[in-house]
Amino acid sequence: MKLYSKTQVTMIIALSVALTSLSIAAAILIFNQTLKYQRYSNGTAAVATSAPAIPSNGLTSGALATGQLAQSQSLQTAAEAIQGNYSSDEIENITLYEKYNESVVNITTEVLGINWFLDPVPQRGGSGSGSIIDERGYVLTNNHVVDKAYKLYVSLADGSRHEAKLVGSDPESDLAVIKFNPGTGTQLKPIPFGTAKNLKVGQKVLAIGNPFGLERTLTTGIISGLGRPIQENDTTILQNTIQTDASINPGNSGGPLFNTRGEMIGINTMIYSPSGGSVGIGFAIPVDTAIRVVPQLIKDGQVRRGWIDLEAIQLFPDLVDYLKQSGKGAPVDSGLLISTVTKGSNAEQAGLRGGTVAVRYGSTVFYIGGDIIVSIDGKPVTSIAQMYSALEDTTPGQKVSVEYYRGSKKMATSVTLTERRN
To answer: What pTM was computed for the model?
Structure first.
């Protein structure tokens, strides 16, 4: 064990105190330097000589988190946030939706069913969309949305539900007009009609509707095709439909298709879908069809169209072969063979002839030997549906040209149309 004198102990204590003081001073210096670096890295001056400036918009320069942006950048970002910070395309979508979403209604229906006792009972029907086209409560929609409805209901953006009535329907264009009473103080905003005459493939379009009952949904896309003929049933072809990839689903039917100016250019009506959901192939009836038929639907409840009074059968391969073998054929493989012409009718007055020899095909009996129509008013006619389509936009009293074959000779005549019986 080593012993120290009193003097040595005093010197050791003094040296320890001196070393401790030096360590504390060094630590304080390092801490101050670190704090100074952190202040600089946060974008704050090390020595503040005056109070921080307050931007004129009332936002402080320190509103943003850690300083990856300079003060000028933070002010610019704040201004963009006030203005919405949206792209021009987004602003276009937002503006149109905010302007017209309340003009699109949700339509629900009740239909009559039969219970076990064969009594008629109301049942829940389908649903769809509609466009307000008049401040008095007129709504444009699809015929198939309201077809066979026992009761109709219209739901507005404010949550109110109104019973509506059918004003008129036209299965041939798949359009219908219904009307509800908006009530005192309710201001309706009609959607303006545009035109589908100058549309281009690739043009941007927007659709508002109620897919699967989800009210006032906006989807966007482009026009994928124009002039599409869509056969709805044996006698109806929807002509010149607009094809779009804007998402359309069940419940969108009857809703508007817009251009970027906020004009209705089409009425969404159907989709092509193996699964039942949207696969990017939807179709809309051109608004020009609505412009033509809506006034008639409001006035008369139906559309009056012209007709040629005859009965015809569509040519098919077996019939074509039989006609050639019997010597009653024509140099065409497609067209409408006139079976009968009503006596004294417009067809007879125009010189058209029906058949004279009865034949049976399956359970159908018709006459051969008559004229074969190949075009009406310049439009090719190869089926019954195309005959209806060729006369779809005609009116009673209007004259149309008819081209036909009588044997091997091609002929033409003019027919004054009568009114088609529905």
So the answer is: 0.70
Identify whether 23 is a catalytic site residue. no
Contact 340, 311 (CB under 8 A): yes
**pLDDT, mean over the chain:** 81
Catalytic entry in 129, 144, 247, 383: 144
Task: Give the Cα-Cα-Cα angle 382, 384, 386 (nearest 5 degrees).
Answer: 60
Following CA atoms 299, 301, 305, 309 in sequence, which dihedral angle do they give, to the nearest 10 degrees?
-130
Domain ranges, residue 270:
204-300
| Residue 221 pLDDT greater than 90, yes or no | yes
- Choosing from 103, 131, 173, 174, the catalytic residue is 174
Do 414 and 316 lie in one domain? The reply is yes
Answer yes or no: 56 catalytic. no
On whether the CB atoms of residues 245 and 207 are closer than 8 A, the answer is no
Q: Which of 74, 253, 339, 389 is catalytic?
A: 253
Q: Would you call 144 a catalytic residue per the annotation? A: yes
Q: Which of 141, 245, 139, 145 is nearest to 202 (CA)?
A: 245
Contact of 420 with 308, CB cutoff 8 Å = no
- End position of a domain, from candidates 300, 316, 349: 300
**3 state SS of 40:** helix
